[in-house]
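Quick one: structure tokens for this chain, please?
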Amino acid sequence: MEVVVLNVSGQETGARVQLPDSVFGVEPNDHAIYLDVKQYLANQRQGTHKSKQRNEIAGSTRKLHKQKGTGGARAGSVKSPLFNGGGRVFGPQPRDYSFKLNKKLKSLARRSALSYKAIDNHIVVLEDFNFDSIKTKNYINLVSGLNFADEKTLLVLPAANNNIYLSSRNIKKAKVITADQLSTYDILNAGRLLLTASSVKTLEEALAK
């Protein structure tokens, strides 16, 4: 698949980039995408939720009233889950939600997500660029020139660039990451995927195996 390369103003440069079919033209595997997104979201969970059970409640251990003759149910402790302030039955405990996925499956999921973006024509290739200074206005001008100011955009860079990253950080619908940080969730969550000419090569080297 051949794509026209644009500059930061949204104008065609005359150059073209070939998006390799091994990365952007595979048969999408929906189940692989599901598993990879599920793992990504699970890994975001802190798992620090906790409620006290009856053995952790601070309170008297005396018997509340005699066993028989009250007309009510037996009650042995104020810590019982039946009473206000008592322990919780089967409450949440700290746990690790993460789980393992094979590298080949994760690679397939990313290639499938990229292929969906290519099918929908939601991939834009930009020439390699840099900002002279850290200014939010620079990045606003970039997405405005591409007519993506109202869309979620994900810019993928071949390597870390502090000026570009910090210029985009205050923009709600914009995200900048490097090619090695690219996840299936990020690809699907973005309305438009912005790639630089160099990041296309980096993704091909990483995923076309």
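The longest strand covers residues 12-18.
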